[in-house]
Design a protein that fits this description.
Two copies of one chain form a homodimer. The first copy, chain A, has eleven helices and 16 strands. Chain A is of the alpha+beta class and about 400 residues long. Chain A folds into two domains: about 290 residues, Aminopeptidase (3-Layer(aba) Sandwich); about 110 residues, Alpha-Beta Plaits (2-Layer Sandwich). Chain A starts with a helix and ends with a helix. The relative contact order of chain A is 0.17. Chains A and B meet through strand 8, helix 7, strand 9, strand 11 and strand 12 of A and strand 8, helix 7, strand 9, strand 11 and strand 12 of B.
Chain lengths: ~400, ~400
């Protein structure tokens, strides 16, 4: 099946990267419920309708385009998100939505209906870049969104106020729960260098890593940097430095299965002539195997305790979040791999270190994910880039997946 | 000579720790040229006049009280500073000024004049806690202040505006250069635990350590913490952690002669799910022997280069300041030691790791410094504490020094 829509999908992502579809003057930022988000929904609505879909917006503000099937019944969902991080790139999210639109456009152009309906979903809040929560809208659609805490964005705008302008409310988000679905398919840029390094355009995602995030607070004793002899110090930063290197060491021990990162570290009081009295740092550990992740976390925390005890520094560990691993559905993953092979690609399968809407949607229905090579493995960065030829290949594989799903479904 | 003024010196320091002599609501902060600084100058002016001094303010805003001698000619200067760090203690600075006032008050009460004038100086900017420069006003008095760069405080108030309200200007600070002086004597809390550990009230300072301060900037590559495999990372924080531990190792190698501190460390972009791309840290190295200090700095920087090279991280080193060691005058130090012994104290001599106004004043005249024991070695801390009995002892030793200086001078 030819797939010229790949070029159009890329062009549309590029278009969404400029005014009025970004809230940043000299960069790309599309926060959930912002003016740019509203503008993006409007233009995507037009593209969905042009592709033969009817459109609606659910109670969590997700935009959904529906292409009826030969029969009613559970739909195949294809989607990703249209929000972005601050100063982000053009493809992280929108590419998966645009590829969904192109799948339907291709079927529609051929006046072809599948035995099942297809719905393309543009989720609203995957990144968590505006309000302090992530994947709110896909969790709402999957029916796993618990009670919503009160929250405001960095400018102090309450979520309730932002939702009101979209005709909904925090207590209504859970109403977005989607009807039972056949499957959820998501295409996304890889956000890592594995495919590029191996010279591959595409890869099938086997699952999304379990993620543990903690905050560690070390308390030593501040003191004058000129007058406190080295043996008398209880330097919180020196203790933190040992922990940072231990985190790296544990991660490097299992380079193919684990990543461990200290991404933030704050020093108090933070003056050149004062010995650090307190350090707060973040710890992020991910592995496809949650048992491995938990073992690694325990090894790091045990060693951190020993480091702190040796240095007469106290340590507190505060949980931030603990997301379980989310394996993709084995049967769907096999079908997607067959489509990949049929299109002439090696059957590369890889895990995702980043979270995706598919992780939330796994609670509603079986999921499958396709990764598209991105230049330098870069994402969350204005330099994010995909090649049209790779996107065309992705579209062909997704259409192959839909064909195979028809065969299985019938 | 009896010294009941010690209790009054402590009481006056305590009084300067509360409103209106502090700019902090629930703590002590007296920034140079602030309302609290102005209020402190006013009340100290009254105390100086009560002690028999005439007062004036120089072009660098230093408050000077003068007690005429039997002869004109070069004066004995006694002083310290009345500014403070943020959330500081009551004695770091003011104690030396109050002790100078009590020396003169004691002579005045006995209607005694020395062969030389005595001037008590309350310096304005020793800590550098408001504007990004330290010891501006003692450097101005010593005649070593070079051209003043334009600078503003953290609130954006220009130095020129702050000085204008004290009737002076940045370009006039150098006019504060003091006439040639006989000697400069400063009493100060130790800011370290040596005297307390040894059960001593007082110590004579042999000199002030040479101090080197640098900023190091490490540039690695930011990346997604979930999708970038450990072997592909160029983590600027992991490189910084190795450097922090190397700084500690070099300092610990010579625990009696050297201190080395990383007091600030900033991570960019600074998100829990992003590998640190850039780290900026401070390096502060002090030793009484400048050659040892420079050797230590070179060892640290060589190792930092090797760490950065191994990790494919770039490193830049920016000088912040390089203060030479400032030995106290051997003759004055001997006289002060004699006064110490005469008052019944063991002749303890020690080096100062912290900088003091005496360091700047050494360019104008011979200097001597007396350290007073402080509880727990604490300073730059609300818990800073001195015992009245120690301050009474310090006053007696300072008066003994003045007596001996008379004998030498005549």
């Amino acid at each position: 099946m030819p797939a010229p829509g790949g070029a159009r999908a890329v062009a549309r992502c590029d278009m969404l990267g400029v005014s009025p579809y970004t809230d940043m003057k000299d960069g790309l930022y599309r926060g959930w419920l912002s003016p740019a988000y509203r503008a993006a929904q409007e233009v995507v609505t037009g593209w969905m309708e042009e592709a033969g879909m009817t459109t609606r917006r659910d109670a969590a503000t997700n935009l959904i385009g529906r292409y009826e099937g030969l029969n009613p019944g559970p739909a195949l969902l294809i989607g990703s998100h249209i929000d972005s991080v601050r100063d982000g790139g053009r493809y992280d999210g929108p590419l998966g939505v645009m590829l969904g639109v192109e799948c339907v456009a291709t079927l529609h152009a051929a006046t072809r209906r599948m035995p099942f309906p297809i719905e393309v979903i543009a989720f609203g809040d995957e990144e968590g870049s505006r309000f302090p929560a992530a994947m709110l809208t896909s969790r709402a659609a999957a029916g796993t969104l618990a009670e919503m805490p009160d929250m405001a964005d960095a400018q102090g705008t309450p979520l309730a106020l932002a939702l009101a302008s979209f005709g909904t409310a925090p207590e209504r988000l859970a109403d977005a729960r989607h009807a039972p679905a056949l499957a959820y398919l998501e295409a996304h840029i890889e956000q890592g260098p594995a495919l590029e390094t191996e010279g591959l355009a595409l890869g099938v995602v086997t699952g999304i890593a379990a993620q543990l995030r903690l905050r560690l607070v070390l308390e030593g004793r501040a003191g004058h940097a000129g007058t406190t002899a080295m043996p008398l110090r209880r330097d919180a930063l020196a203790a933190a430095a040992e922990i940072v290197l231990e985190v790296e060491r544990v991660g490097r021990d299992r380079p193919d299965e684990l990543v461990a990162t200290v991404g933030t570290l704050e020093v108090e009081p933070g003056a050149a002539n004062v010995i650090p009295g307190r350090v707060t740092l973040s710890l992020d550990i991910r592995a496809l195997d949650p048992a491995l992740r938990d073992l690694a976390a325990q090894a790091i925390l045990d060693e951190a305790d020993a480091i702190a005890a040796r240095r007469l520094v106290t340590i507190r560990t505060l949980p931030i979040h603990d997301l379980p691993a989310s394996p993709c559905d084995p049967r769907l993953t096999r079908i997607l791999t067959e489509a990949l092979i049929a299109a002439g690609h090696p059957p590369r399968r890889l895990a995702s270190g980043a979270g995706h809407d598919a992780m939330a949607m796994a609670a509603l229905c079986p999921t499958a994910m396709l990764f598209v090579r991105c230049r330098g493995g870069l994402s969350h960065n204005p330099a994010e880039h995909v090649e049209v030829v790779d996107v065309e290949a992705a579209l062909a594989v997704m259409l192959g997946f839909i064909d195979r799903l028809e065969a299985v479904h019938v």
